[in-house]
Amino acid sequence: MTLEKTPKLRRGFRFQWEPVQQSHVLLYPEGMVKLNGSAGAILAEVDGVRPVHEIIRTLEQQFPDAGPLAADVEAFLAEAVQHQWIELS
Amino acid sequence: MTAPAGQVGPPLWLLAELTYRCPLQCPYCSNPLDYASQEHELNTEQWLDVLRQGRAMGAAQLGFSGGEPLVRQDLPELIAGARELGYYTNLITSGLGLTEGKVQAFAEAGLDHIQVSFQASDPELNNAVAGSRKAFEQKLAMARAVKAAGYPMVLNFVIHRHNIHQMNDILALCENLDADYVELATCQYYGWAFKNREGLMPSKAQLVQAEQEVNGYRDDLRNRGRPMKVIFVTPDYYEERPKACMNGWGNLFLTVAPDGTALPCHSARLLPIDFPNVQSQSLNDIWYHSPGFNHYRGDSWMPEPCRSCDEKDKDFGGCRCQAYLLTGNADNADPVCSKSPHHDRILAARTAADHATAGLDDLIYRNARNSKLLYRG
Ligand code: SF4
Ligand code: SF4
């Protein structure tokens, strides 16, 4: 995955916090995925504007104790593309 | 497994059946046979209240269905209210009564997704099954309008013995309409479909052929790099184990019928169980404390063979409605299961499907006249 690319939620997908489930979820036609903490934190930064490398930097600032995050973020985004949740442009 | 009462999770999924009114007459309709004598509908404020309560309990997915939800004049208001509450809003429609103006207005109100149902890939068969002469053209126009307005589009086809040979044509039509998802849902035998089962159920040979066609088309889509997702729901009558119906009774799904009756699934109304009404109880009480919703939670209600079966956490004994329709007792194992002492009823239906000759004219169409005839008492 190139760090210059910009991820964006695909049309019809909505990302939101669900207080009752105490987690972020991804909603789409007749479906819902409950996201774990790190997936939620990454998708929260996916705004269709900032490229992958900026998202990584933001997350590393947010979680200074987590060490370098590039590999994890890229792996998750690749998975999200595969699930057809997001697209890269 | 289904949580025993007391450790019940929230209803994440709410289905609002706004009305039983519908301009079409599909002989596989899952609405109750006596729908015509249930004319009472919740009003706008009552529906908005149901939506508020459901959302507060944790519901995130909301389906507007029916009948045909478009006959409700307050639909834009309900959509806007739901969206504001934070629901992901799905409109499940036949496309009849839809206009480009409405497609646009719903988008502005915040509707997330529209599912349009078709009956077949060509106008003759489509209109014959739907019992309406102009249905097909209208559906085509509306599918195009939905797509043009930027919604993700799901096209739904209920599959039965009279259209199961059309898989390639159906998928080509969907591709042509630029669908994002296609649901090929083989008939489930509840409501009108159960009445018409003999005339609807495909034979095993038809099913095998259809599966091959669908798989072939999927490969083709992949090779051509088309992202259209095809979901083929195969009929459980050809399985040896039942489906994990609704993911467990009163586990995730909450349906509210037009008159406010709350149900664990849209066909549960046919069961000899008293279900509560949102007009006399809070949704919270209904979900967590009503006898109707607690009836089949957990597994202590199970008789043999389910009781001592090591698969009961997987399928919860199958579908209560199917058990009731086929054995007369909703507690029984779903006869789809080969361990069920009533499995012969499923085998008999398969044999019947191999020899069925009934044409479309022999089906009982879902309309007010037939509904009243069936329930004259
Ligand atoms: S299945 Fe057909 S008749 Fe029944 S509500 Fe849907 S469109 Fe109307
Ligand atoms: S016996 Fe009951 S629990 Fe066991 S597989 Fe069959 S339906 Fe499921």
Helix/strand-derived category of chain B reads alpha/beta
Shape field of chain B: globular
Helix content of chain B: 25-40%
Strand content of chain B: 5-15%
Cα distance, first to last residue of chain B? 40 Å
Q: Over the alpha carbons, how many angstroms does the gyration radius of chain B reach?
A: 20 Å
Largest sheet of chain B: 9 strands, mixed
**Terminal residue distance of chain A:** 11 Å
How many domains of chain A? 1
Number of helices of chain A: 3
Fraction of residues in β-strands of chain A: 15-25%
Structural class of chain A: alpha+beta
- Biggest chain-to-chain interface with counts: A-B, 15 and 22 residues
Helix fraction bin of chain A: 25-40%
CATH architectural label of chain A: Orthogonal Bundle
**In what order do the strands lie side by side in the largest sheet of chain A?**
2-3-4
- CATH architecture classification of the largest domain in chain B: Alpha-Beta Barrel
Mean pLDDT value of chain A: 94
Question: Major beta sheet of chain A, specifics?
Answer: 3 strands, antiparallel
